[in-house]
TrEMBL record:
The keyword DNA damage applies. The lineage of its organism: Bacteria, Bacillati, Bacillota, Bacilli, Bacillales. NCBIfam families: ruvA. HAMAP family: DNA_HJ_migration_RuvA. Homotetramer. Forms an RuvA(8)-RuvB(12)-Holliday junction (HJ) complex. HJ DNA is sandwiched between 2 RuvA tetramers; dsDNA enters through RuvA and exits via RuvB. An RuvB hexamer assembles on each DNA strand where it exits the tetramer. Each RuvB hexamer is contacted by two RuvA subunits (via domain III) on 2 adjacent RuvB subunits; this complex drives branch migration. In the full resolvosome a probable DNA-RuvA(4)-RuvB(12)-RuvC(2) complex forms which resolves the HJ. InterPro entries: DNA_helicase_Holl-junc_RuvA_I (IPR013849), Hlx-hairpin-Hlx_DNA-bd_motif (IPR003583), NA-bd_OB-fold (IPR012340), RuvA (IPR000085), RuvA_2-like (IPR010994), RuvA_C (IPR011114), RuvA_C_sf (IPR036267). GO terms for cellular component: cytoplasm; Holliday junction helicase complex; Holliday junction resolvase complex. Belongs to the RuvA family. SUPFAM superfamilies: DNA helicase RuvA subunit, C-terminal domain, Nucleic acid-binding proteins, RuvA domain 2-like. It comes from Priestia filamentosa. This is Holliday junction branch migration complex subunit RuvA.
Length: 202
């Protein structure tokens, strides 16, 4: 229904961003909202997917068409819903995901929130041989695009990262094992999320 939306980010939280276009604020769920910056002067393009089921009608948004395409492929897997697909995308490790699917590495796949052995096996069955077209140098800019200036002081960035990881489905005990190890790095929220995800997936 919507291929993309051009507009201005007017609000964000750990789960979604609001992009205003033509006086309408679109609630867009995205893997890592803190990659966006509230800026009513800078227009951005968000590639969107309109997910409709009996109990849900929601917009999901991505910084590139490749991200959107992978999201759709993940949704085609039995056992993976929108939240699970976002959690996989949030890792930013496209190469690792493709390699795990092609090599039938269930051990890697079950590290994602909500992915058990049965779902991991289904991912392999449904996606093997179908992701290689996404494995380019420019694939997924979730964590490689130009970083925004640091949003706030270090403590707030850490707290925002923690809330975002909870939204993705990670347990607080898991988060508390990795975030404190990054405390001295003085990073922006999205960088904390990226590094925490890298540790959680090891």
């Amino acid at each position: 229904m919507f291929d993309y939306i051009k507009g201005y980010v007017t609000y964000l939280n750990p789960e979604y961003v609001t992009v205003e276009n033509g006086g309408i604020g679109y609630q867009i769920f995205t893997p890592n909202p803190f990659l966006f910056q509230i800026n009513e002067m800078e227009e951005i393009t968000v590639y969107t997917y309109h997910h409709v089921r009996e109990d849900i009608s929601a917009l999901f948004g991505f910084l590139s068409r490749q991200d959107k395409d992978l999201f759709k492929k993940l949704l085609s897997v039995s056992g993976i819903g929108p939240k699970g697909a976002l959690a996989v995308l949030a890792s930013g490790d496209t190469t690792g995901l493709i390699r795990a699917v092609e090599e039938e590495n269930e051990k890697f796949l079950v590290k994602f929130p909500g992915v058990g052995k049965k779902t991991a096996r289904q991912m392999i069955l449904d996606l093997k041989g179908k992701l290689n077209d996404l494995a380019t140098d420019e694939t997924f800019t979730l964590f490689t695009h130009e970083k925004h200036e640091q949003r706030t002081e270090n403590e707030k960035a850490m707290e925002e990262a923690k809330e975002a990881l909870k939204v993705l489905g990670y347990a607080e005990r898991e988060i508390n094992k990795v975030l404190p190890t990054l405390a001295g790095e003085n990073l922006a929220t999205d960088q904390y999320i990226k590094k925490a995800l890298q540790k959680l997936l090891k």
